[in-house]
Design brief:
By secondary structure, the protein is α+β, with helices and mostly antiparallel strands. It has seven helices and ten strands. The strands form two sheets. Strands 1, 2, 3, 4, 5, 6 and 7 form a seven-stranded antiparallel sheet that branches. Strands 8-9-10 form a three-stranded antiparallel sheet, with helices on one face. The radius of gyration is 22 Å and the shape is globular.
Length: 330
């Protein structure tokens, strides 16, 4: 179920304060993962990290990434579990065979708020089990040690049930929800674990609890960071101003990219042309827009109607337009 959402002044006043703050995210590094085929000058993998795909390392001699052992399952804390070492006269070799892979830790500075939408829910809606009220913001950020390394960050922030914004702490504490799986995180994991090169790389995730002076003390704050790939989001004005052969090339590459996602068991829930990232210099096409995504286990198949859904084709006015793609404007 899609929650009702709308931008509000109330939310804007709050999330705007996050600009300039620092956030540390964590990434369960899978040595078998293949990186995106696209690397911008501001997100190049250094030669020393070339054998470790997925490591978001600045190109000019940065401090090494911090590798942490897995967090303790008993506490659910993001703090690393104790690492037992033994003395030896010879260097030891770490083996992760049969173990959870190490974790990459990165710190980011939030630089700009790009958008925000809130899902406001009344108490009876929450009691129905459709989720918790929240506001979701999209931001620009960069690595603390290298401002040239730019990425996008999504923040999921629990907000009070409608009508309880000024309630006392005891009332707000009753709104704390059990852990909710983040669909966007699970989508990125499915794509990255299968080496999908058609989407931006996932760079890290963190979940925290709100403090005493936040909107819902004890409520969740979730941070998710992904790569800013070269290129810009397509618009209908730009796309339809291009040469017909260029438009056909974009459609072909979009088709291939979408098919790759389907093979990974993922389908974006938001279909619009702005979710297609096009690099005019190289002609590369990538697909974004997984805020409402979720891995899908059922069989997924390509349909040419996706060209229409994403604004890469214009349907005819006939009722059975789906059956006559030869009459679409391409």
């Amino acid at each position: 179920m899609t929650l009702p959402s709308r931008p509000t002044d109330f939310d804007a006043r709050y999330l705007r304060r996050l600009v300039g703050t620092e956030v540390t995210t964590f990434y369960d590094f899978d040595p078998l993962q293949q990186p995106s085929a696209v690397f911008s000058p501001t997100s190049a993998v250094s030669p020393s990290a070339a054998s470790s795909p997925g490591v978001f390392t600045p190109a000019a001699s940065p401090p090494p990434a911090t590798f942490l052992p897995p967090s303790s399952n008993a506490t659910g804390s993001l703090a690393p579990a104790p690492l037992t070492t033994t003395s030896s006269t010879t260097p030891s070799t770490l083996s992760f065979s049969g173990l959870h892979p190490p974790v990459i830790r990165r710190s980011w500075i939030i630089t700009e708020k790009l958008s925000e939408k809130a899902a406001h829910l009344a108490k009876d809606e929450v009691d129905m089990g459709i989720g918790s009220p929240r506001t979701v913001g999209k931001f620009m950020c960069h690595l603390v040690e290298d401002p040239a390394q730019i990425a996008f960050m999504r923040i999921y922030y629990q907000i009070p049930i409608t009508g309880t914004e000024d309630a006392d702490l005891a009332t707000l504490a009753q709104q704390i929800q059990p852990h909710e799986v983040c669909g966007e995180l699970e989508t990125f994991r499915a794509l990255m674990n299968q080496g999908c090169s058609s989407v931006p790389r996932f760079l890290g995730y963190c979940e925290k609890t709100q403090g005493e002076h936040d909107l819902v003390p004890g409520g969740y704050i979730k941070y998710l960071v992904w790569e800013k790939v070269p290129g810009e989001s397509l618009t209908e004005e730009v796309f339809w101003s291009l040469d017909p052969l260029v438009r056909e090339d974009i459609r072909a590459k979009f088709h291939a990219a979408f098919e790759e996602m389907l093979r990974c068991g993922v389908k974006p829930q938001i279909s619009r042309i702005s979710k297609i990232i096009y690099d005019q210099t190289t002609g590369n096409v990538r697909i974004s827009g997984f805020r409402r995504g979720w891995p899908i286990r059922d069989g997924l198949h390509w349909s040419d109607t996706r060209y229409v859904a994403y604004g890469l084709a214009k349907r005819s006015d006939e009722r059975d337009w789906r059956s006559h793609p030869e009459r679409w404007k391409l």
